[in-house]
């Protein structure tokens, strides 16, 4: 029995080592892609930064395109779990708020966490997609996944009792999509030096003014 228990534990340890190795490679790649760009970064440099053999990088990810996609996907999600944004706890909890104002506060906070990870790599995605059709094909733009998420949030928001009656779902989705865009986040936080807290406060106030009914 002892031998069986021991063998039961070994796969878990191997899986944990594999997970940690994958995380180290992704973190190293993200740092290098942001600092140097996708095209200028080699898998050997990624391996050196992660402290693994380059053969390990190839074994885990096969090629640089697959590694780049993993960097983007984990930046959006915050982890390596294959869970869509609309199935994430933070998104569901925000939509479940009883008021539009409460949903906006929770939603903007959740989006801020994503943008803090994703916005710095958005220019990399655009640059890599412009020169590599296979990378471009990994992120379809029709329909835009980000708009799909914001439209789902807008559907929940416009059903709340304090939502503005003269704002329909499409208008609300457009406002969420535009004001919570990575591009606008970068304008304020990267270019104008705003803190993420200041951006969050502004975005929440602006959206509340446009989407919530005036309080008596």
Automatic annotation (TrEMBL):
Residues 1-15 have a biased composition (Basic and acidic residues). SUPFAM superfamilies: Homeodomain-like, Tetracyclin repressor-like, C-terminal domain. InterPro entries: Homeodomain-like_sf, HTH-type_TetR-like_transc_reg, HTH_TetR, Tet_transcr_reg_TetR-rel_C_sf. The keyword Transcription applies. It holds the Pfam family TetR_N. It comes from the Bacteria. Residues 19-79 form the HTH tetR-type domain. Keywords: DNA-binding, Transcription, Transcription regulation. Residues 1-21 are annotated as: Disordered. Residues 42-61 bind DNA. Transmembrane segments: none annotated. This is Helix-turn-helix domain-containing protein. It comes from Streptomyces lonegramiae.
